[in-house]
Amino acid sequence: MKMKKRVLIGSPIHQKASILQLFLTSLEYMNTEGLEVHYLFVDDNESQDAKKILSDFMRRKNTAYILNSTDTQSYICDESTHYWNENLVWKVAHFKNVIIQFALDKKFDYLFLIDSDIVLHPETLQKLIEAEKDIVSNIFWTRWKPNFPELPQVWVFDQYSQYYYKRGERLTEEQIHERHQQFLEMLRKPGIYEVGGLGACTLISRRALQAGVNFNEIKNVSFWGEDRHFCIRAQALGFNLFVDTHYPAFHIYRESDCEKAQEFMIRNIKEKIEKDLFYKIKVAFESIGSFDYEKGYEDLSTAYFSNQMRQRVLDEIQSQLEDNVRRKLRVKANVYGCQVKEISLKGQKGIITFMLENNGVEGGSTFSETFLCESEVIKEGNEWFIHSLSVVDKIGDMDYKIGNTDVSLDYRHNE
């Protein structure tokens, strides 16, 4: 049996609650198939709401760990930019080094270091591992000032030079601009590219960790920011740096970006949510909708209903069982054509529409009926559940609704 790769997702967190919620939600929808994923967060939050959001995540994930910071230095950001000083930079560097040491001690195969204002595409982690690089960042783009163009978090040389040139080569302003644009255009295309600097969303292999990559200050380097010191040390240790541009992340640099971040997340996780919900709706309603008066409900499954809905369904099934046997009812339900009508990650609920087809025999007479149905789905803990069922349009004679009003699973076929 192939052993699962062990991945530690780590992040120092000093964040606004609204941004943190989006970050953690994107982690929850990450595709971790074939991986053993653990989480380590350094809680440096001032906001009690943010602390609660983080602790709630830990309760939902039995492989999540939180280290509490005792440092009280404040970090300020506004709708214009973020304000850093040297003390804050090396405070964060220390947190990242603590996470690195934890990854080494616990023998993880990879460490995924990510800032807490990043919203990820669900396939990000799988794609970064697939790259088979010792150090690779997932790209994201940021307007560092409101009137600035979007720029990536990776660079080629020095502090933040985003164009290629040879040592000693003299370039005109026009040539610099042209090469800068070429660099940006390259990064807009899906691929894996070697760069000179990276950060904020980086997968690091155990091999690189064991070799000594870290965020300690290099005292004879004047470049600002712990990521520069990490990158210089990594190159000196023989590790090239890469960026993967297949699934760009969303950087919530300003709180006003939250709405766009949610749109980004919904757009990218919709397929994953749809696949999960469509499967649950098909299994659930084909299960409770298929009945044989001689055999009963052969594959009855209520696992995908909310607690409230599950009890209503079970009560209704029990109340109608004798009548369905008396009518010698045989019916086979088929669900198809599922679509997401609406979904709200913030409200943790949505509406799914689907077609329900019933084919059966009652009292010796065959019948076939098709209905356009609608179900409300809600999130309980870390899972989505079916919370109601109603018929939107009937192409037959059966009428039922399960939810906050009357409930009936009574199959009535009229000649």
Structural account:
Strands 1, 2, 3, 6, 7, 8, 9, 10, 11 and 12 form a ten-stranded mixed β-sheet that branches. Strands 13, 14, 15, 16, 17, 18 and 19 form a seven-stranded antiparallel β-sheet that branches. The protein has helices spanning 17-28, 48-60, 86-105, 124-130, 173-187, 206-211, 226-236, 258-289, 307-326, and strands spanning 5-13, 35-43, 64-68, 76-77, 82-83, 110-114, 118-119, 135-142, 151-152, 192-195, 201-205, 241-251, 291-292, 329-344, 349-362, 365-380, 383-386, 389-394, 401-402. It is built from nine helices and 19 strands. The chain folds into two domains: 5-253, Spore Coat Polysaccharide Biosynthesis Protein SpsA, Chain A (Alpha-Beta Complex); 267-395, Nuclear Transport Factor 2, Chain: A. 33% of the residues lie in helices and 30% in strands.
Q: Features of this protein?
A:
alpha+beta, Spore Coat Polysaccharide Biosynthesis Protein SpsA, Chain A, seven-stranded antiparallel beta sheet, transferase activity, 19 strands, disordered C terminus, elongated, Nuclear Transport Factor 2, Chain: A, 2 domains, 415 residues, ten-stranded mixed beta sheet, Nucleotide-diphossugar_trans
Helix content: 25-40%
| Cα shape | elongated
Mean pLDDT: 89
In this structure, how is the largest beta sheet organized? Answer: 10 strands, mixed
SSE series? EHEHEEEHEEHEEHEEHHEHEHEEEEEE
Per CATH, the superfamily of the largest domain is Spore Coat Polysaccharide Biosynthesis Protein SpsA, Chain A
The CATH topology of the largest domain corresponds to Spore Coat Polysaccharide Biosynthesis Protein SpsA, Chain A
What would you report as the Rg, rounded to the nearest angstrom? 27 Å
- List how many beta strands DSSP finds: 19
Architecture of the largest domain in CATH? Alpha-Beta Complex
In total, the number of domains comes to 2
Keywords: Transferase
Protein name: Glycosyl transferase family 2
GO molecular function: transferase activity
